[in-house]
Structures are given as C-alpha cells and as structure tokens.
Task: inverse folding
C-alpha cells in the first residue's frame, strides 16, 4: 500500500526527532494510593466542564488543569470503567488527599 503524501520516512542517518514531554503528560499511568490500591492516573491540561474534587470537595473549574483517576480493579475483579473516574485538582492528588 503506498504511503500518503504527508508521511515520509526519516532519511537514513538523520537524527530522530526530539520527544515532546508535553505529549506524554496525558498518557494514563499507574500510581499506588496510600492504602496500597492501584489507580490509573491521567493528567489533563484543562477541564471542559465543572467537576467536584473528591479530595477537597471544591469545584474543579472549567479551564483548570486536573487529574482524572480511576481504580485499576474494583470489587470482585470486575472492571468499573468510566463510572469510577473522578476528576481531582492536581494539587489535591499530589498532596495524597486520596480515597481510602
């Protein structure tokens, strides 16, 4: 299958393009909470709507950076998916104001 006109291979011997760390910011990663529970954590640059932070019980306003968190496993090993996601202030999550 021919390549599209917009994508070209990097010429042999040319340096690799630099990795943009900002792109890695939004990739979900695993973190362990204070009680040993594992969470998927994804950092987002700006909220698109208002959420209630479970750490401080204040609003995560539109446009604020935030952390979206959900448990890796739920009770009885059944994945909980989008229903278990919670939107946190980045500072609340970093201060370990996490669910127990």
Result:
């Amino acid at each position: 299958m021919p390549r599209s006109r917009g994508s070209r291979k990097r010429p042999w011997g040319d340096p690799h393009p630099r990795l943009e760390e900002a792109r890695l910011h939004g990739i979900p990663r695993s973190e362990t909470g204070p009680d040993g529970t594992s969470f998927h954590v994804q950092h987002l640059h700006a909220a698109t709507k208002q959420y209630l932070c479970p750490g401080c019980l204040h609003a995560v306003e539109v446009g604020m950076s935030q952390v979206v968190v959900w448990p890796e496993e739920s009770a009885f090993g059944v994945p909980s998916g989008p229903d278990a996601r919670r939107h946190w202030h980045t500072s609340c999550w970093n201060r370990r104001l996490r669910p127990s």
Notes: The first strand starts at residue 29 and ends at 32. The mean pLDDT is 78.
